[in-house]
Every structure is written in structure tokens, then in C-alpha cells.
Specification:
The structure is a homotetramer. Chain A has about 160 residues and is an alpha+beta fold. In chain A, about 45% of the residues lie in helices and about 15% in strands. Chain A has a 4-stranded antiparallel beta sheet. In chain A, strand 1 (about 80-85) and strand 2 form a beta hairpin. In chain A, helix 3 packs across helix 6 (about 110-125). Chains in contact: A-B, A-D, B-C, C-D.
Chain lengths: ~160, ~160, ~160, ~160
């Protein structure tokens, strides 16, 4: 089972750009600290998100399906949205960013997805007090990356789009 | 983990030919019994194998690596060769044939791989008394297909290429 | 320019299935005459078409766009629909079938597209008196395949969907 | 014919990374002048080239074939090497960089290929006095990019590997 996952991961990242993305990662890494790298990837994520048309849908499940339609068309894995008491948990699985940018880049490469989700939730008009941040480091060898959409002040947040 | 496997399986089979292969499977199924379908797929496998250049190598491990180079370039999964007392076990993992021909076709579609391995071992000059056959049905929801290269008479077989 | 076309054609047909489709073409060819091969490919085309959801649209241009959306998603080339006095001309460009089934198969492989378009026009409810047939042989080294939707009796046909 | 080229160009650039590369291009463009952008892309090209194993071969034709093997495996187009009196002309066709980075980036994006070819010729041990530079701007709507390997001083150069 785990051998299959390794096999599929290797196959997932497009051969056409893998060498370029690896070169980008190495060069990029040599030029900045983690903070800067994350900031740049975050910006790329914001821009990337803007190039897709996200249909919000009426419920959390339709929103999730709408995001997964985009991710599946790109072969960028899949997302699960879970509402908790005071936050929304965004769990992104099977993204190709580990293979594209390398394992050593997992400290900063997930900021790309942080940018994408931030743009998407903003475009859906969520409460301005909410902020999306990565929760911990990439898990299960970079296969799961978790984000949290949460109110800064800790008050009860409203995820429903206005 | 198992969700990831499902995700990757869906992505693995080339979109370009999936509708054609699905149509082929349905039409084909309607025209013959399992015996005939297996015979036809076996022949396709023999022909398919002939279009690849297999480097045998000196050991079982180099032969396995050589097969996996071909499978990986096609994104057809990977193989493991295991020598047992009186036979060679060929375990093919993560093939795209379940998604291509459908789950209902798993009774006959693996004959394609049977044909490929038969051609490859013959081209390597294995003992003519050895025969390759599928061992049981496709396992783990079609993710593992096992073949056996074994002497008919049950005498000790020689896998070493002459 | 023509070198680029050759380059792109080679790249277009999915590596994953090219060896299988080549084997299928050779084996298939050995078993029947052109008439039978065309009949089988036509049936596969009918089935294949049924697996896509074609949005008809109000005009010939929206219908064309709708077909091209499907073809582009598969990387099967693109189509141009032209209304003539007594028929509709369907010109399919840049299909991968020459590379998939081989040049020698161009006598029968286009019947696959004949089946697809036949199913699509029937599903749109065109006049039952109209029939779709291939017009001549594949042109420009198999890069253009032309079909005609025309009334058998030669009376003026109505392409408008009922 | 030209419609086919447009069709194939659109299909060539991997969907998986196109949005990312477009975002990278826009963001990157906003941060530097053409000189800086070229310098960065050149560095990425050097690193990228290092990740491939180039077999030199004995003649200009085998070297060309060896480069084309790499480019074809990536679906990055194809190259033609032509020896002139005092220089070697490297003509790269059908690269995906126009679609990846956008037409407006053609002023600096070809520096990526400049880096790749520079690394390759250095790794083959060409005369240190030779330098590879882009010759003019990208031609035929970005479909052809020409480089020149030439001695600075204008003396007769030796392309033969030592």
C-alpha cells in the first residue's frame, strides 16, 4: 500500500516541469530565509487562485466539491473541509508540491496553498476578521497539509458567506 | 491513505483513452465469453510486449529493474519478482487496467499482462517447459495481479536464462 | 512548421496506451475485412460518445464550441461545422487516431469518429432522414477527416434540432 | 495548419503547472528589470541542465539526437544544430515557455534555454573562449529561439570537444 503511494507520488508530478521546479526551489532557497520564501510563495498562491473560477455553492460540501473539481483537473490532490467549534479546518491531501519543490522545501512550499485558500475564502466574502494560517508542519511525509481559518480574537467566527 | 490510493488510481488512467477503452471493454464483453476475451487480451499482450526493448540483466533484481523502467515510463505500475522453491512469482502492482477496462472486466483484462510477461520471459529464453499463468483472481480491489512461472510437470525448473 | 506538426503529433498520443492501441490495431486488422473493422469502430464510437455530456446550444457555433470543449479535454483535436446548401460538413482536425492505430489503419479507424458524431447528432434530435457518413478518405496525411450529415433522398434537410 | 499549431501549443504546456508558472511570471516580472529576470532564468537553466545526463556522442548529429532525446522526454520541443563558418547555431523549436510564462515574457524567458545550452556545452568541454548568447528575439510568435556559440574575439572557434 505504502509502496503504491510512493509509486503514484513519483508519477504525479509532471515530468515537463519537474526539473525546472527543482531548479527554482534550489536557487530560490539559496537567496532568502524561510520567512521571505513563504511570503513569495504566498503571493504566488494568491495569483494562482485568481486564475480559477471557484463556484462557492450553498453548503460546506458543495464548496469542498467545487475546490476538488479544480484540484482534480490540475492533479493537485484533494481537500477536506471540517467545521470545528471556532474554526474551519482545511486539510489538503496528495498535493504534488513535495515532489516538485523537494522534501527540504516543505518548510516554505505549503505557503503556496495558504495563498490559494486565502484568496478563495476572501473571494467568497468570509468575515474579514478570519485569517487562514498553516497548522503545524506538513504531516505524513508531506502528504497532508493542514490550514485553519480562524478569528484572531478567538470570538466565535462565521464561515457562512455573507 | 486508502483515499489517496483511490485518488491516484482515478488520475492514473490517461483521460485521452479512457472513454475509448471503456467502450471497447463493454462492446468486447458483449461479444464473447470469458475464455475468448482472455485469449484475445493475451494476444494483445504478446504484441504489446514486442514493442518494448527489455534488457534482461544478469540477476533477478536487474531483470525486475528493467521491467520496471518500461512500466514506469508508461505509468503502468510496478512489478516484483520473487523466486520460490519451484516457481517464479510475478506480482504486478498499481496497473491502470482496472480503471481502463472497468472492475467487471477484472476476470479477463489481466490476460493482457499474462501475454506481456509470457512474451518477455520467452524472449529471454527461459526453459520451454515453464509456463506463465495467472494465480487466482486480481487481489486488493484489482491493485495486485499475481502470475506464476512454473514447470508443468512439477520438476524443479530453471529460471536462469540460457 | 511541418516539422513542428510532426513533433506535436508524436507527443499528442498518450504514451500510456500507445503500445496497447498499436497492438489492438495490428491484431484487429488481421481478423477482419475493412467493412467489419469499420462496423466495430463505429459501434465503439457510439458507445464512446454516450459517455460525454454534450450541451447542444442554440446555434451551430455554440454546438461546435461544446464539441470542442469535449475534444480539447481529451486532447483529441478540434472540429469545425460548416453548413452547406443541402448538408452539414463536419471537419475533424488533429485527432490522435493516426498515431494510435497507425497510418495503415486510416481506412477504417475514422469510423470511430463517425460513430461519435452520429450518436451526438441523434442525441440532439436531428431529422431521422439525415445520415452521417465519412466524405472521402482521411486528408493531409490523416490530419483532417471530413464527415457529411445529409438527407438520403437529396431533399432539403433540416439540421435544426426539433 | 497554423490552427493546428495553435491547438497543439495550447495542449503542450502541462495543465498541472500552467497556473503556477503564469503566477510566477507575473509576480517575477513585477519585481525586476529585464536584465535581472534574464540573469535569474539563466541560473535556473544552468541548474536544470545539470539534472539531465547528456550523452555527447561523436558527431554534431549524435549530439543533436542526444539533446532531442532529453527535450522529447520532457515535451519541450526539439533542437537543430547547424555549424556555420565561425559559430554554431542552436535553433530551439516548439518550446513550451511561451505558453508557460506568457508572450509578454518572451523578452526574458528564453534565458532559461540559454542557461541550459551553456551548461551542456561547458559539460562537453568546449573551448572556454566560446560563449553562447541568444541571437535576436524569439521568432515566429515565440516558436523559434536561436542561440549562437561563438568566439568573443572572432577567431576561428573549435566546437569539437577536447
Amino acid at each position: 500500500m505504502s509502496d503504491n503511494i510512493n509509486y503514484y507520488e513519483e508519477q504525479q508530478c509532471s515530468t515537463q516541469w519537474r526539473a525546472f521546479l527543482g531548479a527554482f526551489s534550489t536557487e530560490f532557497c539559496a537567496q532568502g530565509d524561510v520567512q521571505d520564501l513563504r511570503a513569495f510563495m504566498f503571493k504566488l498562491g494568491l495569483r494562482m487562485a485568481a486564475s480559477f473560477k471557484l463556484d462557492g455553492g450553498a453548503t460546506m460540501r458543495t464548496l469542498e466539491a467545487s475546490m476538488n473539481k479544480i484540484w482534480r483537473d490540475l492533479n493537485w490532490g484533494w481537500v477536506q473541509l471540517n467545521e470545528e467549534a471556532d474554526s474551519l479546518i482545511i486539510e489538503h491531501n496528495a498535493s504534488p508540491i513535495k515532489l516538485a519543490f523537494g522534501e527540504q522545501a516543505l518548510e516554505w512550499s505549503p505557503a503556496l496553498l495558504e495563498g490559494v485558500y486565502t484568496h478563495w475564502f476572501e473571494s467568497l466574502g468570509v468575515d474579514k476578521a478570519l485569517r487562514l494560517t498553516q497548522k503545524g508542519t506538513a504531516l505524513e511525509q508531506g502528504r497532508v497539509i493542514v490550514f485553519q481559518l480562524k478569528k484572531h480574537t478567538g470570538e466565535h467566527a462565521h464561515f457562512t458567506r455573507r
